[in-house]
Design brief:
alpha/beta; globular; 124 residues
Amino acid sequence: MSPVRILLVDDSPEFLESAARFLSADPQIEIVGCALSGAEAMAQVARVHPDLVLMDWRMPGMSGPEATRHLKARPDAPSVVFLTVYDETEYRAAARSMGADGYCRQNQRSEQNCCPPSIRCLMN
């Protein structure tokens, strides 16, 4: 089975670097890019065609929810999983309503919170 191609989207360069390093250790995962905003994510999705986008919720400019709405409107839409510190019910409901494929809460901004179980679920 070929590795799942992941685009990481978060406004923290430190988190992107850490998450990419952690996830890249799994041979079933290929990090195809990192984006610092929703707008940058849109451009990268068109260029690298990921299987999965791990998306932060709040970012300057185009937010994660806005980018997800645009991505999910594409005929070749990747899976989108929100990876965020927000765990309120309304965030989860909003993610579902915009077509997100998953929602993972981060306890802290660390690489161990990149929710590999959710990634593996989408890979199968």
